[in-house]
Amino acid sequence: MARSSCSTLVWPKSADGRGDPRPIVRFPRFHWLIGWTPDGTLAFGTLESPSPDGMSRTSIQAIGGGVTRQVMRPGETWGGRLSSDGRWLAYYLRESGDFEVYVSPFQNTGTRWLSADGNDPSWSPDGKELYYGAATG
Fold first, then answer.
1. Rounded to an integer, what distance in angstroms lies between the CA atom of residue 25 and that of residue 110?
2. How far apart are CA 125 and CA 90, in angstroms?
């Protein structure tokens, strides 16, 4: 990834270091990669322009087939991980003042389920379990 003041390029690179990277997509307000679905859709987080209260908000978007769509509206959205089959999106929010992990169908994110109080969700390899961090004490 290369960052500039106006956009970010995403570059693929062979894991063994061979070959020359070439940019595949440019994002104007890119913040973090979330993952790829099996059909090649890329999910990513963006940093939105500061709101009137001076706070920056983040959102989750996806790009596939040359079309970008908003997955999660701007807010206190953090992180994000796609399940290995690309059907589920796990992410965490801070709407209540504490971090909470949610799961939504990736293609229909109007529905969400509160999974746990915590952060940094990650899927098991088979996509049947969700791991997350949580403070204790």
1. 26
2. 14
Strand partners, 101: 92, 116
Amino acid code (one letter) for 60: I
Q: Is residue 8 part of a domain?
A: no
The number of residues in the chain equals: 137
Measuring CA to CA, which residue among 103, 106, 108 is closest to residue 132? 103
Span 23-57, pLDDT tens digits: 877 777 767 888 888 888 888 887 776 667 776 77
Residue 81 lies in a domain: yes
Residue 44 inside a domain? The answer is: yes
H or E stretch covering 64: strand 58-64
Q: Which amino acid is at 43?
A: A
Q: What is the CATH number of the domain that holds 114?
A: 2.120.10.30
Q: Is the pTM of this model over 0.70?
A: yes
